[in-house]
Amino acid sequence: MTSLSEIMSYNQAFVEEKKYEEFATTKFPNKRIVILTCMDTRLIELLPKAMNLKNGDAKIIKSAGAIITHPFGGLMRSILVAVYELQADEVYVIGHHDCGMSSIDTSHVVDSMIERGIDPAIFKTLEYSGIDMEAWLHGFSDVTESVKKSVDAIKNHPLIPEDVNVHGLVIDPANGKLDVIENGYDVVEKA
């Protein structure tokens, strides 16, 4: 059985048995927060539980390493939509210890692409077009500094209003312990 057929089979029973009813909520986050975190599989259930969040409490945006790589990319667009259209007034950037982005070998990723059929000439075209694969795929060496950098990118974005609190945290994927790296309330109080 393929993963798609397994999912579809389960989904049919899920809908028929009305298991969705316990998750009913609106599109607006009850706790008025948006979270940018890593796509790490260990965080799927752990992070919301560690933060006492239930379905409907927060907008959760996931990406590799919770890294803002471009000020006008999809991650910032999602954060801005959450703030301006979906009533979020706080942003949490949550990185985690033992993140794969802290040890990513970009040359290995490129080699894997080639092994899976990507024409090596593509990389010359990308380089010619100004795309630096090393920089684009690069992660970070220190999760605390990475979180601070993403917090700074959000906090200082020209379209983020000053009254939006932007927090930075790091979670331990082994036990769910959260450490505050940047307290967004401190910044707003000092302003």
TrEMBL record:
Molecular function via GO: carbonate dehydratase activity; zinc ion binding
InterPro entries in the cross-refs: Carbonic_anhydrase, Carbonic_anhydrase_sf
Family per record: Belongs to the beta-class carbonic anhydrase family.
Top EC class of this enzyme: lyase
Keyword Cell membrane annotated: no
Protein name (database record): carbonic anhydrase
Lineage of the organism: Bacteria, Bacillati, Bacillota, Bacilli, Bacillales
Swiss-Prot/TrEMBL cofactor(s): Zn(2+)
Enzyme Commission number(s): 4.2.1.1
Cofactor annotation comment: Binds 1 zinc ion per subunit.
Keywords: Lyase, Metal-binding, Zinc
Catalytic activity: hydrogencarbonate + H(+) = CO2 + H2O
Gene3D superfamilies: Carbonic anhydrase (3.40.1050.10)
Positions that bind Zn(2+): C38, D40, H96, C99
PANTHER family: CARBON DISULFIDE HYDROLASE, CARBONIC ANHYDRASE
